[in-house]
Amino acid sequence: MATRRVGIIPHPYRVSDKFLAEKIIPSLDQFGFEHIVIRPQTNIVDPQEPAKLPRGHGLFALVVVGGDGTFLGASRLAVSDEVPIIGVEVGKVGFLCQVKVEAFNNFIRALADDDYTTENRMMLQGRIVRNGAVVFQNVALNDVVVGNALIPRMIELECAIGGTYLVTYFADAIIVSTPTGSTAYSMAAGGPILAPTLDSIVLTPICAHSLFIRPVVIPDTETVSVLPAASNPPLMATFDGQVFYHLKKNDEVSVAKYEKPLRMIRLPEFNFFETLMKKFKWGARHIES
């Protein structure tokens, strides 16, 4: 059988070559995997095109060593080539990274034995449309956000669903989120928590200037169109809070389900609702001394 190759994507600052050499690579070597280390760019401003995996990579799987932010960046690399991906948690929140460092050897054994499943997670594709032409597009696992580029100030955003006008938001920004992203920025802005495998998109305004504006959940078959008013200050579209694109007047941001899902390697012991309980400490009793 041909040797299988695993790509390692480490956190750019917290995960050193020494950490990989001591904690990660020996397990891959033990079970006969080749490996390459991929260090993606971070905080990308006005890119010409989306980042991609190295040409001819031949990867069997991607292993992300970091936190959820590192995983988000890696997901944008993995999805177009449909490479299965899993995260080793060395971050703080850990909704996306399932494997503990101390359990990594057991995971690689399961990977070598094909003793795992994959779970499809929806991703979004955001397009910047200028004078009827797409000038930029990228994907996001969590969310696409349209907001201020320079100053914290109320802006005006007209929003349509499937070509039908929905509402004009007077708010700080609008978050268009996947179910996976519903536990991230959208939740912090008052949006609902969705099970990550639901076929839905969430629209969550940030600090809307109306008592009657609420988050909206729509089917993932719809396209969300956001048209900023010409009177707005400079605006920016962000993809997972990591890729930033400056908008020009009369630009439209179109967001829809991406044509391919992200294939996340799923461990038998992982349960989304148990993770919610643990991370948010739901059900915990406060003990007074």
Topology:
Elements: E1 5-10, H1 17-30, E2 34-37, E3 44-45, E4 59-66, H2 68-78, E5 85-89, E6 99-100, H3 104-112, E7 117-121, E8 124-130, E9 133-140, E10 143-148, E11 155-161, E12 164-171, E13 173-177, H4 185-188, E14 200-206, E15 216-219, E16 224-228, E17 235-239, E18 243-246, E19 252-257, E20 262-266, H5 272-280
Parallel strand pairs: 1-2, 1-4, 3-18, 4-5, 5-6
Antiparallel strand pairs: 7-20, 8-9, 8-19, 10-13, 10-17, 11-12, 11-16, 13-14, 14-15, 16-19, 17-18
Helix pairs in contact: 1-3
Tell me about this structure:
A hairpin with a 2-residue loop joins β11 and β12 (164-171). It is globular and about 60 Å long. It folds into two domains: 5-121 and 261-280, Probable inorganic polyphosphate/atp-NAD kinase, domain 1 (Rossmann fold), CATH 3.40.50.10330; 124-257, Probable inorganic polyphosphate/atp-NAD kinase, domain 2 (Tumour Suppressor Smad4, Sandwich), CATH 2.60.200.30. The chain is built from five helices and 20 strands. The model has no long low-confidence stretch (mean pLDDT 90). The relative contact order is 0.17. With 289 residues, the protein is α+β, with helices and mostly antiparallel strands. α1 (17-30) packs parallel to α3. The strands form four sheets. Strands 3-18-17-10-13-14-15 form a seven-stranded mixed beta sheet, with no helix packed on it. Strands 9-8-19-16-11-12 form a six-stranded antiparallel beta sheet. A five-stranded parallel beta sheet has the order 2-1-4-5-6, sandwiched between helices. Helices cover 16% and strands 38% of the residues. The N and C termini lie far apart (61 Å).
